[in-house]
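Fold this sequence, please.
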Amino acid sequence: MVFSYRVGGDLLLEKVRIPVEEGGFILLTGKENTAFGFLGGVVAGVFPVERESVPRLDELVKYFMGTLDLHEGKIPDSAVYLGPDPEKHLLFSRVDEEIGAQLGRDEEPVSVLERFGLSPAFRERRIATLSGGEKMKLALSLAFAKSARCTVLHGIVPWLDGTGRELLLREIKKARERGGCVVVLEQETGQLDPLSDARFFFDGKTLSPRGPDGAKNSALENPSSFSMKEKFKGNGNSGSGSIVSFSNVDFGYPGEEGEFRLNGISLELLPSRIYGLTGDNGTGKSTIARLMLRLETPESGSVRLLGDDLARLGRERIMDGISYVSQFPEQQITLSTALQYIERASKKGNTLSHETLSRYFKEGEYPVSQLTPLDLKILTLGSSVNPRTKLIILDEPTWGMDGEGLSVLLHTITYIADRLEGASLFVISHDEVFMRNLGADLMRLQSGKIMRVSVNGDVSDRSRLRNVLAEGEHPEGEHPEGEHPGGDG
């Protein structure tokens, strides 16, 4: 099929050619802008949306109601589209309700869940308690269970752990064997490349073919050209006390028996450091961040912020010390435009927030509905920092990001770090290569415990680490939480 897509006088997609053929697997990568997001939706028949004009809403939804010019071919008769935010594809409160609503009551939930390694116990889980990766696995299970003629996936790889990525490859192969076509829009293309029939690069408006050795545009393959580690050495006397500390913290979600628990977690985040936390889907990585923000409360043990018991601190004091960009930054945004956040920062006298946002959002209002994942992350980051910020938390920062966008995000962080004293960075991600490039002290969360993997990007031997986890040994540089030399997290 060959098509163009325009909104008003703007040509977003120009004569894009995608060979949607029976049994094919098409891989698209490139510039992750607004048009790239609409590319997959057009192929799947999601856009343009037809609706009556409502003057107050027209500006907010205009990109979804553009004009499609189909030059050759046709939209697939049946198609499924899954975008980079799994929450937008899950509407019910429980997993079994979601499966029944999307697939019908005759579909066996257990067989659906097995597609991406989710246990039968997930039938009874509340979707709100699932991790981001588990939500994506559920959304993928539903997408492939529909056996559509064309399955379009955008930005799903960064959410998945190693097992999830292997199961994704299996489902793509099975879809092709039954004659379906799979189109994937992705930045982390390494595991997908060998399986694809055709590869294309998006330059911001149109596609061009590329071979397996062609231009890459991946967060994994284009690490930052500067050292983030140098930016977090402190701008003066950063102090020796911890920013955040956990002491024997236990936590589990009520009513979710048999699922993950955090068991006796003890850790310490010191000033002027970069920390990375990795682990499989559903092990509790995001829950660690939520405990730091007192969005969750430990069953036992304590969490302290700058030496004070978190349980005794007000919300304003917590947010004054911690800047948080969640897996789903759109959910943190309460105003309608970036300009409103800039104006709010000015009224509050928050010069750091005002300067950070003004550097990126230079002119115009920037309606939230039209922002890219990069825009949303910078808006959330810039609006939550202040001159007293001591910890920046980034949860899965690489999803929805091309190499250029990730570089912009990192430069924004360094701009902020240069204006803070003794602040630290805490990154949660499956992308260990990315965190090593940052020079992070890397930790792994497994079986409710935290294990150190590497210090300042110096990677420990992975085979020895497997032995540590299996046998409980503690070779040099690999210590269980609570036993780190010097107590440095």
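DSSP finds 15 helices and 20 strands in the chain. The domain at 228-487 is CATH 3.40.50.300 (Rossmann fold).
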